[in-house]
Design brief:
The protein has 12 helices and 10 strands. The chain is α/β, with parallel strands linked by helices. Helix 4 runs antiparallel to helix 8. The longest helix is centred in the middle third of the chain and has 15 residues. The two termini are 37 Å apart.
Length: 401
């Protein structure tokens, strides 16, 4: 496995080799964000008109970075929108390289002959508003020519979907044959189907929820606080800091916290047990348990491809999620959905457990869904990114003409 270029969410947990650890001994940058002037890679860009936000602020002419896969038909009968999770981006498939720190995060789902068959479907993947991989976010330059940082406006899931709808308008796409998202992307997909039912023919909501619960908000809150407590955070104004002096420790800690909720206890116990990282025993105070080394490695790796301010902005947006807000509750909101729907959960998911998906399926019209599909996986929440055969089977069924 190429540790440097493989997205950690998309592979089983594994003991980290000493060689892999040594590959990330250098100091991390102040921010892992993609910045203007960096290689574009597969990205394309659209600039939107001024965007009003739920906070009352107006975001001036935000830019959306996106990638496409496959060939668009003249009648748009094959257009599919894929919406990424919290730490994902527009790079669904393809190698790491100039402009892309890691390989595509859905390599087993998107491509010729796969569930999202790019010989048939035209797949569009935007980087979400507030992100750090080309779409306007805290690492972007504000109108005063300085990075937004912590000054970036507060966003909600509805703000982000509003930006995605305007992005769709800019592409000239009025109706998506499918809107597909997992985790935070699933929040977006549900909001799409509720807010714009006439624009969504099929809906796939994977490992997600209809509202962020107190437990889920609490998990996000402690991750945000971990970033804020890092002395290198500097109130969000860290972009000029030398390598190693940005908020990398706080961002890495937030990532380690998140990984504990993305993976299942069974997987961690089975893969690591009480093994040591090296010949030094942790009982001497000098050695390390293998699972601790795994968390540290991936926390360190994450700081090289993400931005601390974006993490805060996006985690807060997740906390805003409530399909039923000002709509008479979740069940009433879901009755607006007219799309044919796939609601899929993972039996071992402790972040968004299957009960969350059952609530979604129960609220949808009987004609639009067969109920929730719960797949067996040892991988917990990240199962929707790893269990390609099982997830792909159900996506294929949804996309059948």
């Amino acid at each position: 496995m190429d540790w440097q270029t493989t997205p950690e969410d998309t592979v089983p947990s594994s003991v980290v080799t000493d060689k892999a650890r040594q590959s990330f001994l250098g100091k991390p940058p102040a921010s892992g964000a993609w910045r203007e002037g960096d290689p574009a890679g597969g990205r394309q860009f659209v600039t939107l008109d001024d965007l009003p936000l739920e906070s009352g602020e107006i975001l001036r002419r935000p830019k959306v970075a996106y990638e496409t896969f496959g060939r668009r038909r003249d009648d748009d009968s094959n257009v599919v929108l894929v919406l990424h999770a919290l730490t994902g981006d527009s790079h669904l498939t393809g190698p790491a390289g100039d402009g892309h720190a890691t390989a595509g995060w859905w390599e087993g789902i998107v491509g010729p002959g796969l569930a999202l068959d790019t010989d048939e479907w035209f797949v569009v993947a935007p980087n979400m508003l507030g992100g750090c991989q080309g779409t306007t976010g805290p690492s972007s330059l504000a109108p005063d020519g300085v990075e937004w940082g912590a000054r970036f406006p507060h966003l909600t899931i509805r703000d982000q979907v509003n930006a995605q709808a305007r992005f769709s308008d800019a592409l000239g796409i009025q109706v998506w044959q499918a809107v597909i998202g997992g985790s935070m992307g699933g929040m977006h997909a549900l909001e799409w189907a509720v807010t714009h039912p006439s624009r969504v023919e099929r809906l796939a909501a994977l490992s997600t929820t209809s509202l962020s619960s107190a437990d889920q908000i609490a998990l996000n809150t402690v991750q945000i606080e971990a970033i804020h407590m890092d002395p290198g955070f500097e109130g969000g104004a860290y972009y000029d800091a030398p390598d190693g002096e940005g908020p990398s420790r706080g961002l890495a800690l937030a990532r380690r916290m998140a990984l504990l909720n993305y993976r299942s206890p069974h997987e961690l116990n089975a893969r690591f047990g009480r093994t040591w990282q090296s010949e030094l025993s942790p009982l001497t105070g000098r050695g390390r348990f293998a699972v601790a080394s795994y968390l540290d490695f991936h926390g360190n790796k994450f700081t090289r491809r993400f931005d601390a301010n974006s993490y805060v902005t996006l985690a807060r947006a997740m906390n805003s999620h409530d399909l039923g807000r000002d709509r008479g509750g979740v069940s009433s909101a879901l009755q607006r959905v007219t799309a044919r729907a796939l609601v899929l959960g993972i039996d071992s998911d402790r972040l968004f457990p299957p009960a969350d998906q059952r609530l979604i399926a129960d609220g949808l019209r009987d004609s639009s869904t067969r109920g929730v599909v719960v797949i067996d996986s040892e991988f917990g929440h990240d199962g929707f990114l790893i269990e390609n055969d099982q997830v792909g089977e159900h996506l294929r069924a949804l996309l059948e003409r």
